[in-house]
Amino acid sequence: MKQFSLFFVFLFLHSCQYFEKQVPSEKELLQKELKSINWKEVDEYPTVVDCEKIADKKQRQKCFFDVMSQLIQQKLDIDTLSIMYPELDTIEVKVTIFPNSTMKFEPQYPKDSVAYDTIKIDSILHARLVNFPKVNPAIKRGIPVKTQFILPVILKEKGKE
């Protein structure tokens, strides 16, 4: 009987090795997780109050871009850009939204930007593009993140001259 129980103890201890699983290291797990993340896309796009009630992700993104373009156009409508530069009908503005909800606007000039006084246009944009409604930043894996995008802003509509 003693041999029999010794055999079971030996078998039990020896068989435990078969149940052990190789546990991946923290570094391996981290590398695997980092590779699985799509760094070029956010989970939730920035949004404003008017767009938050929209459930569809793409529709909410479109709403946000439409609202931002419209707000920028309204703020620039009251200015002299279209009078100073009649040939300038659209300007692209790079919008940066930081995790703390602050925004930064940078005009993007075409290759022939020597035709424009970029310093004057910059100062007009910085003076006009203030007091926006609160923008909630983009979210990536539950954390607010910085996002950038370029919005075409129409300064002068066709046939409205």
Q: Can you offer a commentary on this structure?
A:
This protein is of the alpha+beta class and 161 residues long. The chain has helices at 2-19, 26-36, 57-77, 81-84, 118-128, and strands spanning 90-97, 103-108, 138-140, 143-145, 147-154. Helices cover 40% and strands 17% of the residues. The chain is elongated and about 100 Å long. The protein starts with a helix and ends in a 7-residue tail after the last strand.
**Which spans have pLDDT < 50 for at least 5 consecutive residues?**
none
- Based on secondary structure, the structural category is alpha+beta
Q: Number of helix segments?
A: 5
Strand order of the largest sheet: 2-1-5
User: What general form does the structure show?
Assistant: elongated
* Secondary structure: number of strands: 5
Explain the layout of strands and helices.
Blueprint: H1 2-19, H2 26-36, H3 57-77, H4 81-84, E1 90-97, E2 103-108, H5 118-128, E3 138-140, E4 143-145, E5 147-154
Antiparallel strand pairs: 1-2, 1-5, 3-4
